[in-house]
Amino acid sequence: MGKVSVDISMSLDGFSAGPDDGFGQGLGVGGERLHSWLFGGDWSYGDEAGSAAGVDREVLDEIFTASGAHIVGRRMFDVVEGWGYQNPFQAPCFVLTHRVDDELRALAPTFTFVTDGIESALRQARAVAGDKDVSIGGGANVAQQFLRAGLVEELNLHLAPVFLGTGKRLFENLTSAPFTLKQDRVLVSPLATHLRYVVTPQAQSRQTS
Amino acid sequence: MGKVSVDISMSLDGFSAGPDDGFGQGLGVGGERLHSWLFGGDWSYGDEAGSAAGVDREVLDEIFTASGAHIVGRRMFDVVEGWGYQNPFQAPCFVLTHRVDDELRALAPTFTFVTDGIESALRQARAVAGDKDVSIGGGANVAQQFLRAGLVEELNLHLAPVFLGTGKRLFENLTSAPFTLKQDRVLVSPLATHLRYVVTPQAQSRQTS
C-alpha cells in the first residue's frame, strides 16, 4: 500500500491562498505567485502559462508518478473552476463536497465526488491507487481535516518566496495536532523550497482503512 | 556598511514562540523545540544544553561572525530572563523597550536599552557594527516592526520541523508588507531548514540612516 501525502504550496508567511480567493479569482489576490514554481516563473490568470523547469519539474513529475489517486476539496475545485471540468492529474481525482447534483456529475465525469467525508474519500482513493500514493492537494481546510485525523504520513510543502499578508492560512485549527514531524528531503529552486516531512501520529492508533 | 538582517527560528506552522511564553517559561509550551538546532537536539529548560553541530554550527557561527550588533525586543529579553543579564552574543546587544530604570541598567550593564523606537535602535546598532551586519533576533513583534518599516535587507529563517499549534505567529500584522523576497541560500540539517531571503522594499524609499 502506498502512503498518504499532503502536497500543497504555501507562502513564506503561511498562506495557501490569498485574500478573496474564489470562483473566477483563482487563489485570490497575489495567490498565483504561490504556483510560480509550477509554471516556470511569474504568470497571470488568463495568460498562457509556462512549464515547470529544473528542480521544480522533477518535483512535479515525482508527484504525478508517485500518485495513484488525488483528493481535493470542493472549494479548491471551484476556485480553479473545476480545471475546465477535466481532471488535470494523471490518476483519478476525488472531490470532497457536501453538495453535488447530476448536472455537475455530467459536466465533470472525470472526477469522483465524495459526500460522506474524508475517511470515505481516502478509502475510495486507496482502492484505486493500489501500491501508489494518495496525494491530498488541498485546500487548507481539507489538508487540516486529514492532519487532525492523523491520516497523513508525508507532508510535501512547496514554500514560495512570497509574502501574501492575508488570505487562507494553511496551518490553523490544528491546536491539538496529534503528530510529530521528521525532516526529510529538501529540494531548492529559485521559485520554491520543496520541503518533505515524515508525519507520525502521536499517542493514538491510526484508522486508515 | 553591513546589512540589516532578521535571524529568527520558526515552527513549520509559523510560530516563533509557543503558548504561554513569558518570564520563567521561556518560549512557552513546546517552544524550546524551536531551538533544538541551537543545542544539538532535544533539550529542556533547566537542563544543561548541548551544542549546535554540523550545518547548524556553521549557521550559528556565521551569524556570530557576520554580526556587529544585535537588536532584540524587551519581551524576548524578559522571556529568556535577560540571559542571566549577560549578553550572550559576541557583539553589542540593543534591547528595545518602553520602560527601563537604573536598577535594570545596573543589573544588565552588558546590554544597551533603547526607549525611542526601532529607528533609533538601528542607528545606534549601525554605529557600533561598522562594516558588519545588524542582526534583529526577535521576538515576533520586533521583527514585524522592522519588516513593516522596510528596514530589513535579509531574512534568515530557521525553520524547525515542529508543529506548535498555538503561540505567537511570526508573520502577522504584515498585511501591507511593502517588500518582495528573493530566494537565496538554503542549508539543511535534521533539526532545521535554514532559509535565507533577500528582502527588497517595494515602491517606497528606504530610510535606514
- How many strand elements of chain A? 10
Spell out the helices and strands of chain A N to C. EEHEHEHEHEHEEEE
Radius of gyration of chain A: 16 Å
How much helix is in the residues of chain A? 10-25%
Tell me the major beta sheet of chain A.
8 strands, mixed
Subunit arrangement of the protein? homodimer
Strand order of the biggest β-sheet of chain A? 5-4-3-6-1-7-10-9
Mean pLDDT of chain A: 90
Question: What percentage of the residues of chain A does DSSP assign to strands (E)?
Answer: 25-35%
Helix vs. strand class of chain A = alpha/beta
Using a beta-carbon cutoff below 8 angstroms, give the protein chain pair with the largest interface and the number of residues from each chain.
A-B, 31 and 31 residues
Short summary of the structure?
In chain A, 22% of the residues lie in helices and 30% in strands. With 209 residues, chain A is an alpha/beta fold. At the A-B interface, β9 and β10 of A face β9 and β10 of B.
Note down, in words, how this protein is organized.
Two copies of one chain form a homodimer. Chain A is of the alpha/beta class and 209 residues long. Chain A has helices spanning 54-66, 74-79, 102-107, 118-129, 140-148; strands at residues 4-11, 15-17, 67-73, 93-96, 111-114, 133-138, 154-160, 168-169, 179-189, 192-201. The model of chain A is unreliable at 204-209 (pLDDT under 50).
